[in-house]
């Protein structure tokens, strides 16, 4: 049973006439008929009712067509996969994208790459504090996207570029706690915080809280979920909670005797290696465009 004969069979079924099927296949009608006959001989049963004027499927032919169509679709996908691998495209690409820095323009880059490289399995992960940095430096993630601090360069030979910025603030369920209070008064309320990474520079001192009553989680989205359930307050990306803050479901909590808002750049980063595949180069080139836009915005802001 040849793939070409299966393709001829499915084309005949789908075309309004044998002539149009032959034209679509770029073959003569006798050649198409020969393909059908050869397929029937290999199968041991008839695919079409011969006594009728038009090519009408037998019951066996109808069921066989359903399965043959699936096989041909898989064959086309397999051919595409082989073509992409032959072109050097990566079979899989791992990205660690921290929710605290989610932005629409970054999501757009990810979505476009997913469409452009259908044969590449895109794996996107997130986790505890500085998880992206951890995954990249260990060689698990090909690309990291997250908040960036200069000391990160000490963790490995990294290429890095800024593509945006994130503002962090204290957030709680509206009405759960006063919208303004002192730092000492925070001790009355439980805190939701990210689990620490394994880096030496990371510690509990980086968490913004004044209470031993703390729940540690390994995902910013989980923290947001618990904020919405009124389980505490958290230092979290304000853009991540933008919709809930604007609707009034969540509130930003201000501390009048201590700094309560912080900003950090969002960086894309990867290990510095001599060769990157087409998917890696595509991501870096597109994120470089975000870098150029961001640098222009920063330059414009500084000159005002």
UniProtKB/TrEMBL annotation:
InterPro entries xrefs: LysR_HTH_N, LysR_subst-bd, WH-like_DNA-bd_sf, WH_DNA-bd_sf
Gene3D superfamilies: 3.40.190.290, Winged helix-like DNA-binding domain superfamily/Winged helix DNA-binding domain
Keyword Magnesium: no
Keywords: DNA-binding, Transcription, Transcription regulation
Domain HTH lysR-type: 1-58
Family indicated by similarity: Belongs to the LysR transcriptional regulatory family.
Protein name, per record: HTH lysR-type domain-containing protein
Organism (species): Pseudoalteromonas piscicida
